[in-house]
Design a protein that fits this description.
The protein is an all-beta fold. About 0% of the residues lie in helices and about 20% in strands. The chain has a 3-stranded antiparallel β-sheet with strand order 2-1-3, with no helix packed on it. It is rod-shaped and about 95 Å long. It binds zinc ion.
């Protein structure tokens, strides 16, 4: 039977509960009796972050050619 971690967002009470996946989620905190429990997803998988979408754009800013030189005469 898997166990789940719950944390109360009201009093920060943290505890584990053994229950089936088909069981209803707990909502009411046993400590403060407020329905602020949140189940924490933990263990197992692990999150893979792959950042391969990094592109470097080559922007070559060419200065405009200075062909318009005024002649002094
Ligand atoms: Zn609580």
């Amino acid at each position: 039977m898997p166990h789940y971690d719950y944390r109360c967002s009201s009093c920060q009470h943290l505890f584990e509960v053994y229950q089936n996946m088909s069981d209803d989620l707990m909502k009411v905190c046993p400590e403060c009796d407020k329905p602020h429990l949140k189940r924490l997803i933990s263990g197992g998988g692990g999150i893979l972050f792959r950042g391969n979408g990094f592109y470097q754009t080559d922007y070559v800013m060419k200065p405009p050619p200075e062909g318009e030189s005024s002649s002094n005469s």
